[in-house]
Amino acid sequence: MHHFQLPIHSLPLVRETGYMYDTNGEFTHPNRKMEKIHVFVFVVEGCIYVCENGVEYSVKKGSYLFLRKNNTHWGTKHYHPGTKWFYIHFYQAPTVIGDKPEYNHLTQTSLIYEDVYDSKISFPIHGDITNVEYMAAKLQKLVSMYEQPLPMRPLHLSIAAYQFFTELYSNQLEKNQEANKHYVVNQMIDLMRNSKHNLTGEEIAETLGMNYAYLSTLFKKQTGMSVKRFQNELLIEKAIEMFKKKEGNVSEVSDALGFSNPFYFSRVFKKVTGVPPTTYINERFY
């Protein structure tokens, strides 16, 4: 497995964090197996050499490495003279991560559904960071927080570590995006967001000048949902805005959004939000 995974519904629980340096190149990474602790290392100068599970890593300036709990890792040679690095040692709440879907960052509407929180974010075990100074400043702030005797220090540290890792995840997304494919999907998303009704496959294909079978397959692969489901979520988002502004009852909103009848609208609304529109209105507005 060449990725490190975090569930988005739980915090990385910080045990220790710090900043270190090796002026003369005297250190090697310790030979150890940490049964409950994950390790994150980010190098700001020089180079660290580590081996885990038979894979050797050269962690150079501007790169990071995750070392997973219950795996033996060790140093293969001395660090470069002048090497400087940050580290985070953290626990992870017991949970089964492997079967969880990857967090879908492309098609989030203003509504946040329950299944969003039952997903994960995945990082390459070893990777580079583009905005090195910014991320180093974030880690320095984390170290300073660790050194302060604050009343809620464990919680504040873990929240700050979670924020750091989510920014690292965003950094990786920007770096690793398949530019052309994401450009097409983003065009589809913009087209559907700006439409007042659910577009047909023919309308989408004609507007973008591409085959719809290819577009729908690409959309599902990149976003994890069908074009129809995404368009329905957008319509329900509009319906909720109309309810908030008291722009009509269920039947009137259903008609305004182009649904064939209020019963079908109610079925789609419940499928998207988990509750019928009447229940949502009563819970939200009364």
From TrEMBL:
PROSITE patterns: HTH_ARAC_FAMILY_2
Pfam families assigned to the protein according to its UniProt record, in alphabetical order: HTH_18
UniProt superkingdom: Bacteria
Domain HTH araC/xylS-type per the UniProt entry, residue ranges: 186-283
Keywords annotated in UniProt: DNA-binding, Transcription, Transcription regulation
Protein name, per record: Helix-turn-helix domain-containing protein
Record bears the keyword DNA-binding: yes
